[in-house]
Sequence to fold (261 residues):
Amino acid sequence: MVCLPAAGFVEGAVPGLEVTLETIKRRFGACASAGAAGRAVDEALSALGFDLEKVLVANSTCPDELNRWEWASGFNLGGLGGIPAVGKTGFKACASHASSDENAVIFVFCASHVGVDGNDLGTVLRPKQSKRTTCCGAAIGSLKCDILNDDDAQMNEVKLSIDRARVGDDQALLAEGVYEYSYRKLAHNIRYLSEVAPVVVLGGIQINTNVGLPDFFAPRAFVLIDKGSDAALPFQDKLEVYLDKLNASPIKDDEASQDED
Ligand SMILES: [Zn+2]
Fold:
């Protein structure tokens, strides 16, 4: 799988995209534009025999507004950093919203996130702002202080998620570490979802770019959990086939200008 936005990309048409892509490719490897990842998920769910009209989407992503990708938004399981924060009660509530029809599925999107600004990681220029801000701000903030606070439960969880000796101040390792912790917490509670329906989980890292550029996604896991099971059946290879195919289609206008308004 390659890290390209689209075969139809015209050099210079989206200023800054090529430098950003080079940074993403160097630090995160294979990825797809956010839109292409969404289309890959739809194709994969259909190929698995699920009815796209009967998908309950649940997301465990950071509350940062940059992460509200349309295809990945639904029942919100996540807290700061994207770490599942709703506990057993929230997972059971989510499960109760799933269709009981045949061919229904719960699709869970579990991701940490990181900003990319040209050659740099950890900041991004957001819509309506003139200065870059940190991204993921919670994960970066957790590197500066590891004292837990009574009234800051989600931030406490972010602090607990990070292996400082491994991460140092490397933003790519920070995103990978928060994701891995999030995925483990998700796996711990996934049985509450798979009690009622098959579950497909896409895990990885959301890559937020400066206003005017498309966001990207670096997949790390793509698994199916059968109804009544909590054992994940990996089909990462299959996702890569879909992402490769979709990477070869042009970026849609709505992707190239998604952050402009
Ligand atoms: Zn964040």
About this structure: Confidence is low (pLDDT under 50) at residues 1-12, 250-254, 257-261. The first strand starts at residue 32 and ends at 33. The two ends are 31 Å apart (CA to CA). The chain is about 35% helix and 20% strand.
